[in-house]
Each structure stands twice: as C-alpha cells, then as structure tokens.
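DM from R.C. (forwarded with permission)

"hey, sorry to bug you on a friday — could you get me a structure for this? deadline for the figure draft is monday and I only need the backbone to look sensible"
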Amino acid sequence: MEISASSSTETPFYAVIVAGGSGTRLGAERPKQYQDIAGKPMILHTIEAFQQCKGLQGLCVVIGEDHQEFFESIRPVNIDFCIGGKDRNHSVYNGLKFFSNLKSEDVILIHDAARPFVPPALITKAAQTASTDKASTLATRVIDTLKYEDGAYVDRNNLWQIQTPQAFHYGLIYKAHEKADPHKAWTDDTSLVEALGQSITFIESTSDNYKITTSEDLKKAQNMLNTFETRTGTGFDVHAFDTDATANWVRIGGIDIAHDYKLKGHSDADVALHTITDAILGAIGEGDIGLHFPPSDDQWKGKDSAFFLKAAVDMLEDKGGSIINIDLTVICEAPKIGKYRDQMRERIAEICGVDKTRVNVKGTTTEKLGFTGRGEGIAAQAAVNVKLNAE
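My reply, with the result:
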C-alpha cells in the first residue's frame, strides 16, 4: 500500500456507479438510492458529483433489474445505464462490460451510489493516481480504539476504512473480475485486484464520504444538506384604552386580564399579538399586519388576534421556516403584566405551535412618562428570530 501525493492534472476517466442494491436495511419501501436527500434522490447527488469533474468521459449507472421504473423517473439526460447481476461483483462486471470498447490503460472508477457526498476533487485525484499507479482507492484512517471480544486490542496505526470510488486501469480490473473465484466473498474491487498481485495506492479521504445504509445514516445525510439561515423581525404596536366604554377586562397576549377598560381597535386590539405578528411578517419580508388584514375590511372587525398571528406563522411555515424564539415586551402602567406572563407565554406558544421555552414575555413601564405613563394606552414591542431554508 502507498499513500498518494497531490496532483493538479486532469486525467480522462470513465465511471461505473453501482446502484443495484435493494437497501433493505434502510427499512423503506423504495430502494435507498432513490430516497430523497434535501429534495433530490440520493443517486442524483452521486451522479452530479461525478459530472462536476472535467475529466469524466463516460458514466454508466448499474441498476437492479426491478429498478428501471425508479431510475427512468429521475434519469438525467445523457446518462447511460445497464442492468446489474445477482450481487455487487456481478453488477460491477456488467458495468465494466458496458465499456468494452475501452483500452487496457484507460482509467475507470467504480463507486457506490449510496455515497452521495464524495468530493469531486477526490474523484479526480483517484483517477489521476490510478493513471500512474494502476489502482487506487479512497480511504480514511481508523481513529477509534479496536478490540476483539476476547479482550485483545488491535493496533490501529496501519488500519484504514476503505471507501469508493476505487480507480483502476480498465484492463486490470476487467481481468480481475474475469479471474475472480466465484465461491469467495469479495468485499470490494481492490481485493480482486490485490489477488492478482497488484498493490493499491490509498488516497486519504473524508468521513463525509460515508455509505448510507441505515435510517440513521439517511437522517445524517438530510442534516448535512439542509442548510439554514436565521432572520430577525421586529414589531411595535400601540393601542389606546377606550375610556368611553365600561369593561371589566382587557385582552393582552391572548388572555383576558381584569381591567377597567378594553383597548380600541378594529379587531380585538390585542397589542401584544399584533406586535408579534408584525415581527414574524418582518422576518420573512411580508410587510405588516395592516397589509394582510386592513382595518378598512369589515371581515376583521372584532376578530380574535390569534387568527392574525396564526396566519403569519402559516406564512413562515409555507416558506419552510420555523420560529426560533419570541421576545415580547408589554409597556404599560396598568394592568400589571408580571403575574400573567406565564399564561401569556403558554397562549402565545399554543398559537405559534412552539414550545413555551421559546417564548419570553416581559412587562415594563415608562416611569409615568408619555401616554402609557398617563394610563392612556398600551404599547408592545417584539423581536422574533426565525429559521429558513437557505436559498
């Protein structure tokens, strides 16, 4: 075994992507290579990694005999395919035979469809290395402590985890498959070539180039590709007390609090929910509450402001977003907010569909200054952080 040095030369190469497995360990109805990762079938991520390589001259995907309908439904233009065999070795051999017009010294790469995160630079490097060394493979050094069940430890200093792609002179790998003992379980193509006496050059790879096998592997893949951005929106709202009408409660933060006056407004005038609604709309660039629910429209007269807040949350979720946290400040001399803050948090969390721990409510005064200090109304301000899929 040798370890490859770096090179910047583009080497022409061909590729076989093995995609015939049933993926039964994933426990899904459709084969794992056709499962979506961030909205795109796994196999397309793999194909596109190879298409980014300037040296690619031809590519054949080896599919299962029952998978043609799956593959045809997502097949990229100008991508060839052939039908695999009863196991991986037979499938690779079928892929090699697809390229039967190649010269013996041409470079061909063999890669697992279930490794969608292979870096194009390492694909190119595998081809470059094989062009001179005849055989190469991506691999990572073993970093964990290894031991047998009987207690004996394994020296990990010279241990590697083998990955794909594996790259070869075409004539060499074709001969290795022709001469392979059909009664022996060959775990990969480098073992076939080593059986002919050919050494393999190792190319140090990345742990991101892992093989997706289980449902946990698929979840990890989803997390790797689902990139997010965070945005912040702010809101501010004011409502005056209706001193011309007697009342015994006022609605703030979605709950009714004992007080002598209600707030004036076209809807229920919940100043707290209005400002949170504006903050969410601001975070997603959707204007303000008056744009979507104008006070000139009688259908909103007396409307519970929970409706407006839920509509803003729905707009956020329609964009693939979610609330990170809400920080609300209610500004008034009366009623006193402190003893109601937990009820407000619970109600706001309920409307927004988030955990109560993501909602904070504070009450403050203006020290008798201004309209709130004179008890003429209530002001509220809010900051809302949201998470959105990055474009």
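R.C.: lifesaver. Residues 165 and 336 are 67 Å apart (CA to CA).
me: no worries. The mean pLDDT is 92.
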